[in-house]
């Protein structure tokens, strides 16, 4: 629950993007005194003012023994000279090394940022491709609909064929039954007629018919001989 | 018509020499105020001399020189 009584984003301040670090630090002369001090004294005393001030201050401290010269002075003098010599000789190299380390850090961060940007860009392109694909929906559905229609048609025709073949089988059966019955009746009748005829042929009739056949054959043979 | 800035809001460099005691008296001397002042001073020094891309030895050496001077002042009576 957001309590709307507290106003948000009222100031112009914005933390992002973070302003870059300044290139160089404040100017410091001789490693000890900031440049602002010299600029502060310049209008009144010119260029040599601060140095005169420094010399006067030093002589005052020495003469009034506010700064006491003892063994520590000698030690500090030796240590400071060694330090200054080391800084003057190796300062540039150390600075270059530190700069290189910094560069690597910055390069790594930049690499991460670029990676992230690239990934997001590829994601955007893929999203656009998906959006383009969505336009093809209608074709996809038409194809699917065609497929289904074809399936239905094929199924319907299969069933039609089944129905046809079943009905034909039954009708064939009926036809075959009728044929069989008629043939059996015919055979039976023929058999019966033959049997009765054979039974009715008496031996006398047989002789008569054979003699008639012979006479017929003779007549036929005479006519055939004439034709040839 | 110039808008007069309140004494207590003026920066130290703009305060005239005669107004200095009253300016100092107007500062915030509560513990929170003192801590805030130290934090501000630290932040100013840090952002000017150390939190930069190419810092030098000066940022560190000024702190050490200040430390040397302060420790000399504290041990002056023992010399």
Describe it for me?
Chain A: This is ATP synthase subunit b. Chain A: F-type ATPases have 2 components, CF(1) - the catalytic core - and CF(0) - the membrane proton channel. CF(1) and CF(0) have multiple subunits. Chain A: It is found in: Mitochondrion; Mitochondrion inner membrane. The complex is a heterodimer of chains A (228) and B (79). With 228 residues, chain A is an all-alpha fold. Helix content of chain A is 79%, strand content 2%. Chain A contains 5 helices and 2 strands. Chain A has a two-stranded antiparallel sheet. In chain A, a hairpin with a 3-residue loop joins β1 (28-29) and β2. The mean pLDDT of chain A is 89. Chain B has one domain (1-76). The N and C termini of chain B lie far apart (58 Å). Chain B contains 3 helices and no strands. With 79 residues, chain B is mainly α. Chain B has helices spanning 20-26, 31-50, 58-74. The interface between A and B is medium-sized, with 19 and 18 residues.
Structural class of chain B: mainly alpha
Radius of gyration of chain B: 17 Å
* Biggest beta sheet attributes of chain A: 2 strands, antiparallel
Question: Would you identify the regions of chain B where 5 or more consecutive residues have pLDDT less than 50?
Answer: none
Q: Please, how many domains of chain B? A: 1
Q: What sequence of helices (H) and strands (E) makes up the elements of chain B?
A: HHH
Quickly give the structural class of chain A.
Answer: mainly alpha
Major β-sheet profile of chain B: none
Name the helix and strand elements of chain A from N-terminus to C-terminus, one letter apiece.
EEHHHHH
Share in helix of chain B: 55-70%
Amount of helix of chain A: over 70%
Strand content of chain A: under 5%
| Biggest chain-to-chain interface with counts | A-B, 19 and 18 residues
GO molecular function (chain A): proton-transporting ATP synthase activity, rotational mechanism
Subcellular location (chain A): Mitochondrion; Mitochondrion inner membrane
Keywords (chain A): CF(0), Hydrogen ion transport, Ion transport, Membrane, Mitochondrion, Mitochondrion inner membrane, Transport
InterPro entries (chain A): ATP_synth_Bsub_B/MI25, ATP_synth_F0_suB
């Amino acid at each position: 629950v957001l309590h709307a009584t507290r106003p948000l984003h009222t100031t112009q301040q914005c933390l992002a993007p973070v302003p870059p670090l300044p290139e160089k630090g404040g100017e410091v002369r001789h490693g000890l005194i900031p440049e602002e001090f010299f600029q502060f004294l310049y209008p009144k005393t010119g260029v040599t003012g601060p140095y005169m001030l420094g010399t006067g201050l030093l002589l005052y401290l020495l003469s009034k023994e506010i700064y006491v010269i003892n063994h520590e002075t000698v030690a500090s003098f030796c240590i400071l000279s060694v330090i200054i010599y080391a800084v003057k000789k190796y300062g540039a190299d150390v600075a270059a090394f530190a700069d290189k380390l910094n560069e690597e850090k910055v390069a790594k961060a930049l690499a991460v940022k670029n990676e992230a940007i690239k990934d997001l860009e590829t994601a955007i392109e893929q999203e656009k491709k998906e959006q383009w694909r969505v336009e093809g929906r209608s074709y996809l559905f038409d194809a699917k609909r065609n497929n289904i229609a074809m399936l239905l048609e094929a199924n319907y025709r299969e069933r039609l064929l089944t129905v046809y073949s079943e009905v034909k089988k039954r009708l064939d059966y009926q036809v075959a039954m009728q044929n069989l019955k008629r043939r059996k009746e015919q055979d039976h009748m023929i058999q019966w007629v033959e049997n009765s005829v054979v039974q009715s042929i008496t031996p006398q009739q047989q002789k008569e018919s054979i003699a008639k056949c012979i006479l017929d054959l003779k007549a036929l043979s005479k006519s055939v001989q004439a034709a040839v | 018509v110039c808008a007069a800035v309140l004494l207590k809001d003026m920066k130290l460099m703009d305060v005239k020499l005669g107004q200095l005691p009253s300016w100092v008296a107007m500062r915030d001397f509560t513990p929170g105020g003192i801590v805030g002042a130290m934090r501000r001073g630290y932040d100013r020094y840090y952002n000017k001399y150390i939190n930069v891309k190419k810092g030098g030895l000066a940022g560190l050496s000024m702190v050490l020189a200040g430390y040397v001077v302060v420790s000399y002042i504290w041990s002056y009576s023992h010399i």
